[in-house]
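Milestone M4 deliverable, item 7.
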Amino acid sequence: MTTSNYTVTVKTGTVGLDVSVSDRGDGRPFLLLHGGAGPQSVIGFADLLAGERPARVLVPTHPGFSGTPRPESLHTVRGLAAVYVTLLDELELSDVTVIGNSIGGWIAAEMALLGSERISHTIIVDGVGIEVPGHPIADFFNLTFPQIAQLSYHDPERFRIDPEALPPAARAEIAGNRAALAVYAGEPMVDSGLRGRLADVCLPTLVLWGDNDGIADADYGRAFAAAIPAARFQLLPDTGHLPQLESPQLLLDAVSEFTGTHATGQPG
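Output delivered:
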């Protein structure tokens, strides 16, 4: 499997924005959108999806993450969604399945609202962005790194990292990603109008949720799915907020069932 990395210039208003893209595999196109942990949090799943299914998987880096530049005019999730719809136009892709985790799920939902004919399916994986009374999103920006890990995984010991033991460059990237996330999503990562607007989503949508997600609980996920008329909700067992890291095979199977893409070389 060949992986290529390139930039695509996307016009946003009067500004040209270079979007970094990692592209692998052949077959039905998938746009895989990362959350606050940055693009590295989805690259392993991109390799799995492209390696085991007939899939071309594109992973863009949200501008401002991983040291990439972000123009001052780009500072909302809706703005990011518009950038990625334009990216699909620039690449002339069709029948695209958009998969987004965490804030990536929020971006995917906003993309679905833009009505692009290039998108055929939306998969929201432990997304954020809506307001659900009684089920608040964890106070992410006031949590320590160990506290975030504790809430993010069913089995946090498998993924526990001491940030102080990381090289300075890695620590700087984490801090930069966190700052970019704050710009796009705000605190507490909610758009109070999003839940109502989701009634206008017409695309087939799958909402996948880790049953042990401590960032946004399963009832939050059920509310996300209920807000979208064409959505189906599915729990992933023994999984937290990052299924692509903790339960990648479960996530792959759910994606394949929903999109009708099965073993390599056998599109459904």
